[in-house]
Structure formats: C-alpha cells, structure tokens
C-alpha cells in the first residue's frame, strides 16, 4: 500500500470544554477526490483547517507524506484552500488575484509568473480572462478564479470548504462536473467539505460521513449509499424507509409482521435490527402481487419521478419514488427484491461492520467452492 499523502492519527480538537473532534483517523491518498460530509457543526471544516495549518490539533498527529507537520506553519504546507466566499480581492483583476501568492514569494520573474497564471487560467477554462475585473465575473467564474489562485502554487493537495454553497442550483450542478474533471486532469488530491449529499455522491472517490466530531463511516459513494452502517448514515445519505425488524437467521429478516428473504448475514439469530428500503427500490403493483399493501396518502411531482407517501395497516409510513402517478386513497401493493433490503445492527461501528462483511464474504467464497 502506498504512503498516504495526508494521515490524521487520533486527532482531537477542543475549544475550552467542548470537544469538536473526537479522535479522527483518516488516510488520504495521492490523486483522489475525498469528501467530508455531515451536518453543520459536525467538525468537517475543523479537519480542513487543521490540515491547512489554520488550527492546531489539541491531541494527535497530522502527517504529510509520512512526516509530522503539526508545528509547520500554514504558508509552509504544500496545500492550498478554496474558501466558501472565495476571498478574492475586488480591487485586483483576475491576473493579479491569481498571481498574488507567487508575487508574495518574490522568487519568480514576471515572465514566470505570467506563464504560470496563464497555465492556471487555462486549466480552469478562463483563458483570455486575465484582464477582467472580479466584478465583471459570474459566480461560477469567480469560483474558478479562486481555484486558479490555489493551483498556481502547485499544491500537492487542494482543500475546498463548501465552495459551491453560494451558487444557484443549475450552476452548482455544472460546477460539480467542472471540479471533478479538474481534479482528474490535475491529478492532485482534493478534500471537499459539504453538507450536501448529492454533491458528495456525484464527485467523490471516497466519502467520510461525520456527525458530532466522529467519522461514522467511510467508503465509495456506492458503498455509503447501498450499505449504510447505522440509522444516521442511512437517513442522512439520500431518503430512506427505516423500520424496526428482527434478523431471524442469515438471509431472513422480519419486519412489519412478515418475514422476507434478504442478502444480509453474519448476525445473531433473532437479533433486533433496523431495516432500510430506499424509495426508488420500491415498485407499486396490485395488492395481490405485492409483498406489502399500503394506502396512498399523497404525492408530489418532482420532474423525473413522483414522490408518493403511503401508509400500511400498522400505520408505518412509506416513501416511494415512482415513474407513474397514483390515486390518493387507493390501496396498492409494494414489491421489492431481496437485495433491496439492507439490514443494520442497532449500534454497529465501522470496525464491526467491516468484520461482519469480511466474515460474510469469506462464507460466500467458501460456499462457492
């Protein structure tokens, strides 16, 4: 395994008596797009600031290419930050904003500065904008200037603190593609902070889901979405139907008074669990053909799907995403496949989850032989 470009080892941060980071351990490899995802106040921006050198860790170590950098000042670290408000200088044109850090170092000739600024602006598709004033630029263009100002310094890592939050919905979506494409073209490590799960799922190679100063789960977007580790992750990442259930035995789980075949294993017989069914995995059918019967309460048209709320006979509420509308008050069936059911232990840690998954995969491999 290659040495991570950044490693946080048991990083704790306290402000007076308040502990905002509670022993963070994360590894960031070269050339990947990482996202810290979580609600406001969970500690994600604090991690960014500690890596950048703007904050000191109360306990633990920050390593860059294996070397401890806790005491290295921010201007000596090979990372640059793009802030939420971009922090551009309104009295300077685009060229002067992008070249600001190079000019501060006083070791580059004017030609070298001009060449590096031109390369950086070309990388963010702003060729020909060097003489523009900041006030003449759109929000998306200003964001790209901020990124150009960061990458012109040739950082090994780019830290992005919710840089899309001030943009309108369409521009925000366009910039998700721009950022992902830029990261892949530059080949440097991006660490992106957001509370928007759609952004995280769309752009990331790996996501760290945070809450209350802890990393609850890390993995690829598909892993996080399809295999949430606990109630918080399942509820925070996308929309979910979460119900209490019982793991009858391997590959069988009971909920809403019925037993269903599932794809999960490795738990104790009759262990209390929570069951997750994503709304897009539920199909509406006839009552006779359904695994469950529900009554349609309401629906909203969301453009490419109908968001339907229904209730079963036990008063459990179900959220369904359907391509066709339903009639309020109509009784219908819901059906789903065994692999659409995700079973979660009530208080499972990521280490417990990994151990259970490994045991399950070993058993599957053995059975295949």
Task: Tell me what you see in this structure.
It holds the Pfam family TOBE_2. Keywords: ATP-binding, Cell membrane, Membrane, Nucleotide-binding, Translocase, Transport. The structure is a single chain. The protein has helices spanning 44-52, 94-105, 110-123, 139-151, 169-186, 197-203, 221-226, 231-236, 350-368; strands at residues 6-15, 18-28, 33-37, 59-64, 67-68, 79-82, 157-161, 189-194, 206-211, 214-219, 241-249, 252-255, 258-261, 271-277, 283-285, 292-301, 306-312, 317-322, 331-335, 342-345. It is α+β, with helices and mostly antiparallel strands and 369 residues long. It has two domains: 6-226, P-loop containing nucleotide triphosphate hydrolases (Rossmann fold), CATH 3.40.50; 240-368, Nucleic acid-binding proteins (OB fold (Dihydrolipoamide Acetyltransferase, E2P)), CATH 2.40.50. The longest helix is centred in the C-terminal third of the chain and has 19 residues, at 350-368.
Mean pLDDT: 91
| Spatial strand arrangement across the major sheet | 6-7-8-3-9-10
Q: What would you give as the CATH superfamily of the largest domain?
A: P-loop containing nucleotide triphosphate hydrolases
Count of helical stretches: 9
Reading off the top of the CATH hierarchy, the class of the largest domain is best stated as Alpha Beta
Provide the helix percentage.
25-40%
The multimeric state of the shown protein is single chain
Anisotropy-based shape: globular
Count of the domains: 2
CATH topology of the largest domain: Rossmann fold
Q: H/E element string?
A: EEEHEEEHHHEHEHEEHHEEEEEEEEEEH
Question: From the coordinates shown, what is the CATH architecture of the largest domain?
Answer: 3-Layer(aba) Sandwich
Which regions have little confidence, pLDDT < 50, spanning 5+ residues?
Answer: none
Q: What portion of the residues fall into strands of 2 or more residues?
A: 25-35%
The gyration radius over C-alpha positions equals 24 Å
Keywords: ATP-binding, Cell membrane, Membrane, Nucleotide-binding, Translocase, Transport
Pfam families: ABC_tran, TOBE_2
GO cellular component, one term: ATP-binding cassette (ABC) transporter complex
Subunit structure: The complex is composed of two ATP-binding proteins (PotA), two transmembrane proteins (PotB and PotC) and a solute-binding protein (PotD).
């Amino acid at each position: 395994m290659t040495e991570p470009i950044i490693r946080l080892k048991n990083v704790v941060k306290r402000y007076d008596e308040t502990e905002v980071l509670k022993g963070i351990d994360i590894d960031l490899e070269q050339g990947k797009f990482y996202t810290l995802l979580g609600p406001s106040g969970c500690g994600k921006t604090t991690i960014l600031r500690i890596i950048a050198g703007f904050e000191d860790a109360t306990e633990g170590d920050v390593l860059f290419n294996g070397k401890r950098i806790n005491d290295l000042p921010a201007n000596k670290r090979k990372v640059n930050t793009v802030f939420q408000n971009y922090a551009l200088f309104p009295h300077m044109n685009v060229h002067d904003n992008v070249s600001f850090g190079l000019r501060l170092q006083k070791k580059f000739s004017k030609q070298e500065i001009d060449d590096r600024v031109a390369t950086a602006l070309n990388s963010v598709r702003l060729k020909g904008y060097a003489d523009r004033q900041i006030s003449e630029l759109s929000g998306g263009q200003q964001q790209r200037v901020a990124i150009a100002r960061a990458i012109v310094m040739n950082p090994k890592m780019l830290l992005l603190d919710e840089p899309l939050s001030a943009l309108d919905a369409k521009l925000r979506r366009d910039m998700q593609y721009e950022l992902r494409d830029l990261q892949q073209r530059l080949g440097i490590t991006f660490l992106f902070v957001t509370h928007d799960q759609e952004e995280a799922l769309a752009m990331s190679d790996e996501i760290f889901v945070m809450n209350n100063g802890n990393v609850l789960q890390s993995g690829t977007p598909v892993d996080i979405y399809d295999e949430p580790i606990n109630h918080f992750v399942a509820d925070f990442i996308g929309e979910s139907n979460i119900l209490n259930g019982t793991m009858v035995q391997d590959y069988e789980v009971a909920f809403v008074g019925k037993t269903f075949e599932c794809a999960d294993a490795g738990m104790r017989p009759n262990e209390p669990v929570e069951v997750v069914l994503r709304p897009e995995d539920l199909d509406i059918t006839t009552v006779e053909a359904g695994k469950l019967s529900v009554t349609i309460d309401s629906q909203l048209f969301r453009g490419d799907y109908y968001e339907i709320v229904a209730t079963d006979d036990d008063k459990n509420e179900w959220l369904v995403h359907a391509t066709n509308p339903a009639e309020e008050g109509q009784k219908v069936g819901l059906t789903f496949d065994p692999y659409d059911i995700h079973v979660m232990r009530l208080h499972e840690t990521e280490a417990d989850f990994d151990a259970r998954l490994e045991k399950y995969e070993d058993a599957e491999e053995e059975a295949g032989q």
